[in-house]
Amino acid sequence: MAEPGGYNQSGRAPKATFDRQSTIQKAPRQKVLDGEELSDYQMRRRREFEEGVRRNRSNIGEWLRYATWEESQQEIARSRSIYERALDVDARSQTVYIKYAEMEMKNKNINLARNLFDRAVTVLPRVSQFWYRFAYMEELVDNVQGAREVFDRWMQWEPEYEAWMAFIKFEQRYKEVQNVRGVFERLVFVHPEPKAWLRWAQFEETNGDVDSVREVFGRAIDRLGEEHMDQHVFISFAKFEVRMREHERARAIYKYALQRLPRAQSQSLYNQYTVFEKQFGDTNEVEEVVVRKRRMQYEAM
Length: 301
Known about the structure:
The protein is built from 16 helices and no strands. By secondary structure, it is mostly helical. Helix 6 packs antiparallel against helix 7 (128-140), helix 7 (128-140) runs antiparallel to helix 8 and helix 13 (231-243) runs parallel beside helix 15 (267-280). It is elongated. The N and C termini lie far apart (74 Å).
């Protein structure tokens, strides 16, 4: 006797099950034999799609299926017309814009895709994926200046931090050092948080410009002020000086920061300073920092 679900105790389906399945015949696939039958088939399918969008005009999925089917029939102009009709229904549909642009790019209609992305970012300038795809398309067709102009237009809307970093990485790919600096200048004005300054300093160090690294850290300290300062800016600055073998500079940075940051916001700073003095300081300096750290811990109790 078979167990529930059609399986016997051995875990195998009863033989009769396979016998029944083997007798099931698949429905024959419809074949289009000539141009007249193809025309009849297309006409019938279009009537069905038109009836579907008529009954539920606001259902964007119906429009997308219709447009995709026309594309599969190599009827690009018809597909384009349906996408436009869908945008008449919902001019702010992100999905329609994306699918429409993908269709144009797939069929190598770059200028039409470009015009479409331009429409999309004009109607919905806060939708990041439009800008990303727009810039990517321009770079893909080797229009580097066009991609740069897209990024520049986007930055005028002062988008999120990640968008600025995408622009910076784009300029880095083409080794445009001055352009990278220009984007960082704009970034720290719009997003003056510590992570932006740290990324800029990291870039300058990677580029081998020691004076520029110090300038960036100095500007970060001035711009952030004591109210918005983060201990990690000072830690990174001091560690940079250590890498440059400027131990006195590093010590001065640590002491400057410890004098200005509240103790509740400088635990990592104290820890790093302790490690620094144990590695590079003399006995008196090590004892001083240990005593200071113990005093801070005692006062926090």
